[in-house]
């Protein structure tokens, strides 16, 4: 019996993804800017400093997320989830969760122990990250200020996800990640 569940594939970005990434995730950027971003990400991936992943749904790139490895020696055990974007039409279908799972697995395979992310306070992301397994660990009032338009300022809300049991807070759920 055929399934109505779409096929979701999460994989590293390829140059051929530029048009769909621009259309579905980075519409405020030009195609040339997206192509440059992909080229930079592929180069950084070769050095082990970051990996840009995309999610395809039935062959169409509809989401992206980046793992950035912290280069500072004191923080080399930490990585950052950056630029997690899911096209609005594809939200609430488990795609963000699949990207985060892939990034978490990749980060752990690199020996990273903590995955971090931050977002604007008061936006849906503030509720989504805890649902994806992140724990809030701080808030910087007016820590994000947009350089365009009316220059809106937001609290920057910081989250982390332990990739090993050594970093679980005492009050955390002890289930494996």
Would you kindly provide a written description of the structure presented here, covering whatever features stand out?
The chain is of the alpha+beta class. It has 2 domains: about 1-110, Aminopeptidase (3-Layer(aba) Sandwich), CATH 3.40.630.30; about 120-175, no CATH class. It has 4 helices and 7 strands. The chain has helices at about 20-25, 30-45, 95-110, 125-130; strands spanning about 10, 50-55, 60-70, 80-85, 115-120, 135-145, 155-160. Strands 1-2-3-4-5-7-6 form a 7-stranded mixed sheet, sandwiched between helices. A hairpin with an 8-residue loop joins strand 3 (about 60-70) and strand 4 (about 80-85). Helix 1 packs across helix 2 (about 30-45). The longest helix has 17 residues, at about 30-45. It is globular. The model has no long low-confidence stretch (mean pLDDT about 90).
